[in-house]
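agent> call fold_tool(seq_1)
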Amino acid sequence: MNGIYYYLIAFAVIWVLALTLKSKLTNHGFEINFPVIMWKTERLRGLISKISNFSPKFWKWYMNLGIVVCYIGMVAMTWILISSLQTVFDTPSVSIILPGVEMPGSPIYVPFLSGFIALATVLVVHEFSHGIQSIGEKIPIKSIGLLLVAILPGAFVEPDEDELKKASRMSRLRVYGAGTMANITLALIALLVVSGVSYEIPHLFDENGIEVNRIVGDSPSEGILKEGMVLQAIDNKVINDSESYMNIVSSFKPGDNVSVKTDQGTFNVGLGKNPNNESVGFFGIQASKHFVLKDTSMGSIPWILFSIAELFQWIFTLNLGIGLFNILPIKPLDGGYMLEILLSYRLPENQYKPIVNSVSAVLAMVIVFSLIAGFL
């Protein structure tokens, strides 16, 4: 069953409960307006204030650096988005992320559990950082909460808009840039964790072939190969490690019929066209290195390293990707407001607002076009 159906079922259940209990839920901070459900609270303002007041100077200078990082990221992401139009029908650069769902056109699959936890870190760290910086800039927070837009979860920190508009340009820049800077920081921390785990794994495990992690839906391998199989050879070409595996699979063309030897038997697979390169044969599997424990007396404890590595890989990937996406110069993303503030140093409002609106419209169309190209 495709993961999207689980989201749709959950969405239907949530909305049935929300509409049935609407009168009671509205008394507990819920705002229900289809297709958006918002839950607002003031309880976490004390925690955010404590974190902000712990070291105001640190947060200020940390976000001064964050402003520079955000503008560099803005330029880089805009260039990547525009340049991706050249290969949009081969490898679209933009995709909707739903853990556990194969999104058309997306080159990656985000597993449900680790993807969901990683996505939660993106939302919590991003929004809390906005709140921490708002308090640091003496801008009151009206509310904090969670939201559900259709089947997409989210979080928010709602600063006092009137006070935010009155604040200096630098204060507003620090507030708008706080979320992305926090995501990038968490991504770097996650990368260090993954690097540490990756360094330790070879000391405890030996590489022994390639293991099938996932079968892509409606692919040539579906119904033939299974998750957990260890690939030993393809067309009598022995698979010794990940490098030999990549060299072997890249040598096949669409339409080739190949024999795949596994630890569970030998199977024949007729290859299709690779979605990212139609000249290369497509098996429709995602695989990774297969390991065996060097010292079996250690039991199952060392295997937890792989779960840790997977979780922090997705914390790194989603925090970096979504954090940088949020800094694109598109309103209502943070990057759109930061571009507006930057232009306001030299231009009057009647000039910089049309510029930002035009840039937002163009980049938004590129994103929509990329999403449509992915589905096609």
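agent> call fold_tool(seq_2)
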Amino acid sequence: MKEEEKKALNAFQDNGGEEAVDMSRQLKIGIIGTGWIAGSHMESYLHMPDAQVVAGADLVPGKAAAFFEKFGMKDVRTYPDHKSMLDAEDLDAVSICTYNAAHAQCAIDALNKGVNVLLEKPMCVTLEEALAIREAEKNSGKVLSIGFQPRFDPNMKKIKEICESGVLGKIYYIQTGGGRRRGIPTPFGTSFIEKETGGIGALGDIGCYSLDMVLNAIGYPKPLTVTGYRSDFFGKNPKTYPFHPEYAEKFGVDDFAAAFIRLEGGIVLDFRIAWAMNLDTPGDTIIMGTEGGLRIPSTECWNGTVGGPMTLYHEVAGSQVETVIPVIEDDGPSLFDRKIRTFMNACKNGTKAPVPSEQILYNQAILDGIAKSAELGREIEIVIPQ
């Protein structure tokens, strides 16, 4: 690692605190699931001089060994499943990078072993799973952080600052979502699109990001009710997959979802998300308040930031005006590096998770509520046990 990179990493702050990062203590890391997203975790761990990736597990024979060899790490111990790795290794933390349906069990088992957990998004598939993860976290006393790296983008932070500043007044309506004209994620096989492995589709894959952008900005109010809709018109069409038309028969999740959600505080959330659609975007994100409104341009494909300068609509001395908020250019460490760094800091210092599960529990409750409402064809109450 270059000296300037080390200095940049040392400049990270501990989840908004004032203590500099302690680079003297090594953390022993294991990676559960060595598919596509695990590569991003591995690259970031390699940027951290205090991270020592010592083990990895994958259900596919030989996959973990090939993964680490690609990174020139032939001495990393590999295992055929996460349980055997947790039993054999003395780990400080794990990154869970499996398919969605395996998130809950892997996280619970790691926490029960006294290991800190960085859990990729979505948190899991159902609300019941999220509650079980939370229970294991509470019992363990360990750090559980959820993989929402867009939180560390300065433009996302600016949205939160605007909402918290009071310039919008009382926020009462939010429209959010996004998606891709064509973007069902099948370059690496069918784990994203099969019901048994993915569990939920666009709703969980990129919908959770869109929800987090606005819910985090307004303090994560509790969801109360939801009317949800899901469809799979593109996923079930063999024409969607020119080289693998057989994928249409395997498609068992959603490629589009929409919902109308009522939140505590009298806020209404109008949501839509797509892996595939006959539009370039289902619309910009809009946050409406009694004193002002904020428009956040959508992106072509959810990429963790904003699609262009934001616009604040408000009044000055009786005149209706617009204030353009330029995109904040960011030449610091990558969002993934920040996700990994802040997680490691929390593990070392015993401080609060950078993206705490008590917030993402509400995110997961909405995803679960949309799926259940869509199946029932009616509005349902979102019930989250204390």
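agent> summarizing second result for user.
Residues 3-150+333-355 form a domain with the Rossmann fold fold (CATH 3.40.50.720). The first helix runs from residue 3 to 10.
agent> awaiting next instruction.
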